[in-house]
Amino acid sequence: LSPGAKMGCFTFIKVMMILFNLAIFLSGGTLLGVGIWVKVDGQSFLNIFGPLSSSILQVVNVAYLLIVIGAILLVIGFLGCYGAQKESKCLLMMFFSVVLIIFIAEVAAAVVALVFTGLAETLLTGLVTPLLKEEYGKNGTFTEIWNITMTKVHCCGLNNYTDFNNSVFYEKHNSYPSQCCDMQKPCNSTLAAEMAVQGCFGQILEEIRTNAGVAGGVAAGIAALEIAAMAVSMYLYCRLDEK
Questions:
Q1: Where are the alpha helices (DSSP H) in the chain?
Q2: Domain assignment present for 211
């Protein structure tokens, strides 16, 4: 290619890089804002959007999840957009490094989820079960999300009713959530053991397996975008040496 054609190609890719990362930056800001909204006024959020679907998002604290994802997208979008606009090799390399770390983490998480399901369950249990014991019945938003989940999915806790042993809810009501006893009250350990309502993790895992094709397609699309973003950032980084 002639020098003019090369410069035109460089300019086009630079503009696309800026626009793409600007979209990521704005998306991150939106998610961060929604996460803060859910944290501050979760009940209003639930009233507007209604019952949440049975997905993994209902097993964790949605507000913190949105805030973390939003903050990460803000950082990525800023590094990519500003780095391309200013033609900064330092920022472009930081953008490449952050996306690469996220890509590696996603691949590792996928391997754990697909190959080591038992380990994934152990890790999730270690994170979620303490939250159930400490926040269910205390945090209004967290409690509402779990109530919707357990009612709609017909499940109890992450693994089963024992997740609520020595919990704030049990100490306050001397009972398990009614969902653990198929909505019968009072829900004591004897009745909960007889009902043997399954935990939400198993139900959600089954749903994920049922929709594995869609989930895999989405994951592949995200991975392709990340690889493309790294390739473009590295192209711009290398072309800056020739300018």
A1: 3-40, 42-49, 62-86, 89-115, 117-135, 140-153, 168-173, 189-195, 200-210, 212-242
A2: no
